Structures are given as C-alpha cells and as structure tokens.
Amino acid sequence: MSSTVNIVLQGVLLGALYALFAMGQSLVFGVMRLTNTAHGDFIVLLVFVLFALTSWAHVPLWLAVPLLIVIAFGAGYAVQFAVLNRVSGRDPLPSLVVTFGLSIVIQNLLQEVFSADPRSLATGGFESMSFALPGGIALGLLPLLTLAVTIAATLALQWLFGRTPLGRAFRATSDDREIVQLMGVSPRRTFALAMSIAFVLIALAATLYGMRTAVSPTDGPALLLYAFEAVIIGGMGSFWGTFAGGIALGIAQQIGFYFDPGWGIWLGHVLFLAVLTVRPQGFFPKTA
User: Fold this and answer.
1) How far apart are the first and last CA of the chain?
2) Which InterPro entries does the record cross-reference, listed alphabetically (predicted)?
3) Looking at residues 178-194, what average pLDDT do you find?
4) CB–CB of 246/143 below 8 Å?
5) What is the mean pLDDT of the chain?
6) Does residue 222 register a pLDDT over 60?
7) Contact present, 144 and 13 (Cβ < 8 Å)
C-alpha cells in the first residue's frame, strides 16, 4: 500500500511541473488558436537567462527571479506584437513554420553562447531537501513548491479569464476579432498581452525546472512534448483540464518508473495515445 501511495504522490508532484510547462501553451492556444512549437525552447532560453543573471551577473536568486519575470513579460509582448501577430490567423501553418524557425534559432544561439554543456541553478541544496512521511515516503520541498505554484497559477488564470475585463477581452477576441475591433479593442495588443502572461508562466516553469535538474540547450523539444501531451490529455482551452492532464501524465510516468527506469517516459506516451484515441477532446475540453 505504501508503494502505491508513494507512486501517486510522486506522480502528482512530477505532474505539477508538466502542468506548469503546459499552462502557457494552453493559454496561447485558447486565446489565439496558435500552436507554439518553440514553447519548450522558450522555457530553456529563460533557464539560461536566469543562469546568466545568477552566475555571470551575480544577482541573488531571490532577486533574479522577479527580474526574469519582468524580462519574460516584455519579451512575450515583443515576440507576439512584432513577429507572431503577422502570422496569426485561421491558417495554422504560418505560425507553425515561424515558431519552428524560432526553435531552431534559440537552440543554436544557446549553444553558441553557453556551449552544449548542461547547466543548473545554484539553490544551496534546496533541490535535495525533503521531509519524511510514515511508510518511508519522502516528499521533496522543491516539488511541493512546484505543486503550490502550479495550483496558484491555475487559480490566477481562472480568476483572470472569468472575473476581469482583460479576461473578457481575451475571450471576446478569441471568439470574433472583427467584432471586438468595432468595440475599440485592438486584437494585436490583446494577443500581445496574452503572450506576455504566457511568458510569465514560462518564466515560473523555467525557474523551477532549472532548480530541479541540469538543463541542456537542446532540451526544448522534449519539454514541448510534455506540455503538448498535458494540454491534449486535459482538453484544449481548459486550465484545470491542463492541470489534470499534467497530473495524469506524471502519475503514468511514475508507474512506469516503478517497474523499470526505461518505462516511465514510454508509459506517459502510451497514456497520451490512449486518450487521443478514446477521447480526443481531452478530459475537460472548452475549445470546440
């Protein structure tokens, strides 16, 4: 029984990180119908920006994280306003091509600047701290922090989209951008704000991921795959669905890891394919 409880708990903690990876992707698709194939590379890029702030500029981590969030907000606005707004539309192919190109550029740029060596953030041992539960179960403090941040981000997004004028502007622009233009709302600025918020979520995911493990410049496609699977499993356009999808993916991987270290990632992919076959709209879809 204790091993089953441990698998579930560790799966939930791992899944919370996947859900945080996916939250920005879910927001971008829900508002702009844009599939960002550079999403994972943006996570890796911000990990290396944070590494540069802490290791090269010697900014303390507690100060570097808020600074990274500010940088991410501005970068997200600039990328969407200057680049992605030009290719956003009913045809998804141009945005796929452009974000794929951004992915290649980011990977090669990071390898030029930082080399291909994996880097990690110095946390003073926080990444290995844990406390014990009965039955020999140990819960890491960093995974628990990740779970708390992911729940807080999900609640904040639900409140933003359901209770604020900005959220109503996001929903209206997503439904019919021509009508909102007649009401004096600029779709270009609205989409840029949505991408800014997505980049803030990416910055949070990058911080927690960089604290958890060493990161390589070429890790982006794998992170994109986890994010994409969590969004599809949970349901397009649903934040709580994305959270549930990430948790389901994490538990599936932990079950695989329990039987064999090589089965974890594979079993997560099997779950994704099973959901895609049986319920392609995901657990909690909100986007038709």
Assistant:
1) 41
2) ABC_transp_permease, BCAA_transport_permease
3) 85
4) no
5) 90
6) yes
7) yes
Residue 65 to residue 69: CA distance in whole angstroms = 6
Q: What is the DSSP letter of 127?
A: G
Coil, helix or strand at residue 91: coil
Break the chain into its structural domains and give their ranges: 2-114+138-278
Tokens encoding 146: 């990740």
Spatial CB neighbours of 192, under 8 Å, sequence gap ≥ 6: 76, 77, 80, 81, 85
pLDDT in tens, 99-156: 999 999 999 999 999 998 898 898 888 888 888 888 778 889 999 999 999 999 999 9
* Contact indicator for 205, 24 with CB cutoff of 8 Å: yes
How many whole angstroms separate alpha carbon 197 and alpha carbon 61? 21
Question: Helical H runs in the chain?
Answer: 2-32, 39-51, 61-82, 93-114, 141-163, 165-175, 177-182, 187-212, 220-234, 239-259, 264-278
Bridge partners (DSSP) listed for residue 137: 133
DSSP code, position 89: S
CA distances from 7 to 2, 128, 136, 234, 271 (A): 9, 18, 12, 20, 16
pLDDT tens digits, one per residue of 46-88: 999 999 999 999 999 999 999 999 999 999 999 999 999 888 7
What is the C-alpha separation between 137 and 2, in angstroms, rounded?
8
Say what the pTM is. Answer: 0.94
CATH architecture of 2-114+138-278: Orthogonal Bundle (1.10)
Beta bridge partners of 140: 130
CA torsion 196-199-204-208 (nearest 10°) is: -170
Give the tens place of pLDDT for each residue, 34-48: 888 999 999 999 999
